[in-house]
Amino acid sequence: MTSHAQPLARAVALLVAEHDVTDVLARFLFDGQEALGAAAAGLLVRSSSGELEVLTTTSHRVSDLEAYQAQQETGPCADAVATGEYVFQSDADDIAARWPGLGPYLAATPYQAVQAHPMRWHGQVLGAINFFFAEPMAESPDLLVVGQAFADMATLILLTPHEIVGSDIATRTREALMARTIVEQAKGVLAYQRRIPIDEAYHALLELARTGGRTLSAAAAAVVREASRTG
Questions:
Q1: CA–CA separation, 43 vs 127, rounded Å?
Q2: 196: domain CATH number?
Q3: Closest Cα to residue 204, out of 218, 226, 220?
Q4: Does the residue 174 lie in any domain?
Q5: Rounded Cα gap, residues 226 and 231, in angstroms
Q6: Could you report the per-residue pLDDT of 32-60, keeping only the tens digit for each?
Q7: Contact criterion met (CB below 8 Å) for 104 and 136
Q8: Are 83 and 119 part of one and the same domain?
Q9: In 134-194, at which residue ranges do the beta strands (DSSP E only) sit?
Q10: Which residues neighbour 105 within 8 Å (Cβ) at sequence distance 6 or greater?
């Protein structure tokens, strides 16, 4: 595992300047995955209508798992949102037994353990982060503490720069979800144009944002605009 301080420091540095929530959360989730030694990660949030929705993931395989959890409101991430407590389970068979509906989705992945952490704000649970691991593992107090730290930081990223009322929270969440829609469209465009898998398209989009000095949302919007002009 890498130093846990490095990704947290990078996130804080971004938050004290003008920043794009979707861009910072996407990068931060990759940092969290690396820091915990996870194979993939995903983040669900409550929309203004109260429904769970996928905000960002590090893998297309996890997108399917998170989408199922959001639609059915069952699974580790959904449980973390419902209870406000962390969730841990190891061994793919035990995960499938605990959340039977996840079985078909889990079978298509290499994941053998999962832990989920709620994103809490003043007693309100806004969403949760899932970390998926490639090997079965024992429940680790250290990893659980670090995982919750990433969930708490993700909450601050979502709500910064100001302490805001409930209606503003809904607005911020809605804006982030709208930006995610553009990102998903851009991934599809790049996958089609470059004839590459959707996971590679996402990394290509991140690289476009980095090399172009733009946020993820701005890079995605540019990709979609260009495709519309040339399509």
A1: 7
A2: 1.10.10
A3: 220
A4: no
A5: 8
A6: 999 899 999 999 999 988 999 999 999 88
A7: no
A8: yes
A9: none
A10: 64, 65, 68
